[in-house]
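Hey,

Quick one before I head out. I ran the complex with manganese (II) ion overnight. Inputs first:
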Amino acid sequence: MELKEKLFYKRETGFKKVWDQLDAMEEFSVGYKKYLDAAKTEREAVTETIRIAENAGFKPFDKAKKYSCGDKYYVNNRNKSIALVVVGKKDASYGVRIGAAHIDSPRLDLKPNPLYEDLDLALLKTHYYGGIKKYQWTAIPLALHGVFVKKDGTTINVSIGEAEDEPCFVVTDLLPHLSQEQNKRPLNEGIKGEELNVLIGSRPFNCDDESEMVKLNILNILFEKYGVCEEDFLSAELEVVPAFKAKDVGLDRSLIGAYGHDDRVCAYPCIKAVENLIAPERTAICLLADKEEIGSVGATGLDSDFLRHLISDLARNQGVEPDDALRASQCLSADVNAAIDPTFQDAFEKKNGSFINQGVVITKYTGARGKSGANDASAEYMAQIRAMLDEANIVWQVGELGRVDLGGGGTVALYVAGLGIDTVDVGVPVLSMHAPYETVSKLDVFMTFRTMQEFFK
Ligand code: MN
Ligand code: MN
């Protein structure tokens, strides 16, 4: 009916609108899967991002240099967070455009003194990072990534468990036959934090009648491979992540399964949107943050002054008052949303939830309960973004995180907005968010890329 057509807001699959873009989606997803496999930790994401950026002509920021339209530079924040900048036609007094995503993901961190031997097995104590369902991390292949930093400052990169011929690691679980007591625990205590111990070896150094010979053998292997001893764990950042590779999901190959979509699924589109950007109207910044999963804390999280310093440096370089640049700037906070799961529909409110294959999700506010901890984007800014998306024929949807009063979550949005920058959340709907293996759709990833492209141009 015509009047319905005119007045109703209709939610439907995105395929109708972008059937002619299936090849482009596929091509984009190939690059994305490579990025996922190369960048399982925030440090690896920074390294991989620099590799892509330098290939595209980005150079490290040089304070002494005078920057003008079309120049491309990057600022590496402690190898854990990074900004890629393409200088625009208009100077910073007109504001900059920021696409902000995060490159840390939930995982198991090794404790500072992790290695021990028990019952002739060598194990590593972990402390989980971010929101995880602990039981999901047992009995799956795990890899070890990160760095040892020696007292003299030498950094030793570690990555074990990804290549076909490399060993992996595992957190063991109790067999069902003997789980009568464990089965009575509530699900969130099915596996407890102190039970997330990673099995790392079982063979002694030699047959001598000495204690802790399995642990000694592990330390000897580490010494021979990396030149480190047990004390070097004290100044290490070692992260245990799933040893899975990114893969197409579904007979129709429409989806991608991987560890760490949250939030590389937004980081990668942001990188690709600035990679080949030439002379944007306003300076474009792809900002990839660390520590989002634990509250954007620390010097590499977005609750720091990193972004303020970044924009101030640009403004001063152009003879602009830094505060003027901040006030005029705008941001898309690019992070994942929870896609409505057909199996768990009760957790969502369908009129305002996000759906797989309905495109990039615009989230006015996140937070918990009465929007606590949210950045509630203004109607004015929502209108601007709506218009931009429709103008570019991008498939998009609105989405709250889930049912009111059931839980909640946040993103980096409120920290960017706290600088006086208009900010709204956009991103990709994800199934099994924060699980060791998360699922997204190729259509939604591609629409997020096109959104960032449109925003920056
Ligand atoms: Mn996220
Ligand atoms: Mn998250």
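Residues 107-242 form a domain with the Aminopeptidase i, Domain 2 fold (CATH 2.30.250.10).

Talk tomorrow,
K.
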